[in-house]
Structures are given as structure tokens and as C-alpha cells.
Specification:
This is NmrA-like domain-containing protein. With 344 residues, the protein is of the alpha/beta class. 41% of the residues lie in helices and 15% in strands. It has a domain of 230 residues: NAD(P)-binding Rossmann-like Domain (Rossmann fold). It contains 13 helices and 13 strands. The longest helix has 17 residues.
């Protein structure tokens, strides 16, 4: 295999920091270009500690022309920065479409989405697990997902680029469930930690969308990064063509926690720190939840169960999730997440 050029969006992020490190370990022969905002010697050193050979391109996800122009020149784009960021997704598709039109090997686009596409709109109310639909990624049709759910607009645009006949892109979309753990670089936790923390400070208590008796399967951040690298290898080997066969759930059935249980822990920690008026959690009032609209209810007030049938058939196992279940690391993870975002 000839060396490829990879363009990575989200290289210093929660998942991306592990992806960057794994690219250095597993694919050192490939050229890596990483988009990095606000480049400083400290940030450069942090990124190069993960991948010594990385080439840094200064910019951010809003730099549409830069993202599109770079995507046009590379063989592979990996986007693990922001699943719903339409400008960077459309710019990536624009650039890779032009790259495809030049002929030769089809470019690869590996995108990280999420299981928010499966949200059941339970409004935070308890639903017996036996009554919650468990989705499979075998023959998954995005049109079967509730149309108001998160991620779908960008996911459908990516899928369309992977299934068209003209100027096709080999698209692969990964759908992780609730990602937890501690990151390696600046973004040391999933976005749900700072989201719930900031809302708790505004409300004076930790809280949930409705009663919060809803849940998703949980997966450790390092398992998600391993999935990205596994699928990159499968694409390079021709085992995954992209498009129709490029939709993958990255989930586990390890013991999970409801949003109520998670926010009880957050409330306990924030109360001990003197940042909220009471311990535990209770439903947020409408003035807290309404600004996020349907997006908030879909992401934080719903259930979503999925089986990683295709990854399992490829031999993948969620080793880090089994080794470090969510319940075992929840306190450490939230403490670290609060501290790391306070310093940003």
C-alpha cells in the first residue's frame, strides 16, 4: 500500500487525542495533517506529544474554504471534532467531491456521529428496558430514525455522498453511544460533563430533562478511538467499501447509568465544592431546558439502545469499557472534567 495523506479534524479533542496517538502507532507511514486552532508553542507541543510527525494546519471548523481546499488534496478525512457542525461537514464533502472527480482511488471520509439518531423521545420518563427498541447496524436505514433527532441532517448528507454514482466518496459513519472516560489532551471529557455542569450552576442544582430516568449504552473513549482506527484499516484493505456498508454502531452492553444517576453524582460533587445550593439532582425548570429545544430532549431526555453487530462480526471487543466501566470511574471523570474545562 502506498502512503496516504490523512486530514484530521478534532485532533486534540476527547476522542481525537486518542485517534491521533493511534495513528502514530498504527500508521506512521501515512502523512497526517491536523487542523488546530489558536496555535501556540504549548498546543503544538501537546499535539506532537501524541504524534511526532503531525503537520499542523492553523484554522478552525468555521474556516470553510480552508477545510474544503485541504480535503481536495488528501486521500482520507477523519472528522471526530463535532458531529453536527454543518459548515465543516459540507466543506469536507465539497473538497472530497472535487478530489473524487479527479479520478484514481476514491477518497475516504470517516465521520463520527452518535446514537442520538435513535432517541425515543421519552421526555425523561422511565421506560422498561424490554420496551426500548434495540437497533442493529445491519441494513440500517437512516430514514427509519425519528426525523427530529440529532445528527441526522449531516449524517444523511454524508451517506448520500457515499451512495451516489458520480464522484462518489467512500463514506464511513461511526455511531458511538454515551462516551465516557478521561481524554489525553485539553478536552479531557465528553461534552455532556460541561453542559450539565454549566446548567447546574445556572439553576443552583444539578438536573435532568424531565425525571432523567433514561439511558444509553455507555462506551469508553479509548474503545471509540480503537473503532475509528479499526475501520480506517478495513477501508484501506478494501474490506469496507463505504456508503451502503459504511454505517457502524460503536456500543456496548456493559452496566450503564441513567441521566438521573449521573447527575446525582455531579450534584454531589458540585455541592461539596460550594458551586450549587443542594446535593443530588432534580428536573431542570423549563427556563433551563427550553433554550436547547428538541435537540436537548433528543440528546439528554431519551433512551437509545443499539447493537454493534457489524463491529462484533469484525472481531472488535470493547476492552476498555469492560476494564473500566462507567460506574467505576464516574466520580474521577466528572471531577477531572470540571477542573479541565475550568482552565480553558
Amino acid at each position: 500500500m502506498s502512503p496516504k495523506t490523512i486530514f484530521l479534524l478534532g485532533a486534540t479533542g476527547f476522542v481525537g487525542s486518542y485517534v491521533t496517538e493511534l495513528l502514530a502507532q498504527e500508521y506512521p507511514e501515512h502523512r497526517l495533517i491536523a487542523l488546530l486552532r489558536n496555535v501556540t508553542p504549548e498546543r503544538t507541543q501537546g499535539l506532537r506529544s501524541l504524534h511526532p510527525g503531525v503537520e499542523i494546519l492553523e484554522g478552525n471548523l468555521e474556516d470553510r474554504e480552508l477545510v474544503a481546499a485541504t480535503a481536495e488534496t488528501v486521500d482520507i478525512v477523519i472528522h471526530v471534532a463535532h458531529s453536527d457542525h454543518e459548515p465543516s461537514v459540507s466543506a469536507t464533502l465539497e473538497g472530497l467531491t472535487k478530489r473524487s472527480a479527479k479520478g484514481g482511488e476514491l477518497p475516504i471520509y470517516l465521520h463520527m456521529s452518535g446514537c442520538g439518531i435513535l432517541a425515543d423521545n421519552a421526555r425523561g420518563e422511565y421506560v422498561p428496558p424490554s420496551k426500548i427498541k434495540e437497533w442493529s447496524d445491519i441494513d440500517l436505514d437512516l430514514n427509519d430514525c425519528p426525523s427530529e433527532n440529532t445528527h441526522l441532517p449531516t449524517d444523511k448528507a454524508i451517506f448520500a455522498a457515499g451512495t451516489r454514482e458520480e464522484n462518489r466518496i467512500r463514506t464511513i459513519i461511526v455511531f458511538p453511544s454515551l462516551i465516557y472516560g478521561i481524554g489525553k489532551n485539553r478536552s479531557r471529557c465528553g461534552m455532556w460533563v460541561p453542559i450539565f455542569t454549566e446548567l447546574a450552576r445556572k439553576a443552583g442544582h444539578a438536573g435532568t430533562w424531565g425525571p432523567g430516568e433514561v439511558t444509553q449504552y455507555a462506551i469508553h473513549v479509548r474503545d471509540v478511538a480503537n473503532v475509528v482506527i479499526l475501520l480506517l484499516g478495513a477501508a484501506l484493505d478494501g474490506k469496507v467499501k463505504g456508503g451502503d456498508d459504511g454505517l457502524f454502531f460503536a456500543t456496548t452492553k456493559e452496566p450503564n447509568m441513567s441521566w438521573k444517576e449521573i447527575n446525582d453524582v455531579l450534584g454531589e460533587i458540585l455541592f461539596k465544592r460550594g458551586e450549587v445550593k443542594e446535593s443530588g439532582s432534580k428536573p431542570f425548570p423549563p427556563e433551563i431546558t427550553e433554550p436547547l429545544g428538541d435537540y436537548g430532549w433528543s440528546l439528554l431526555g431519551s433512551n437509545g439502545f443499539a447493537r454493534p453487530d457489524k463491529l462484533t462480526a469484525m472481531g472488535w471487543k470493547p476492552e476498555w469499557t469492560k476494564k473500566m466501566p462507567l460506574r467505576d470511574v464516574i466520580y474521577e471523570m466528572i471531577e477531572d472534567g470540571i477542573d479541565s474545562y475550568r482552565t480553558h
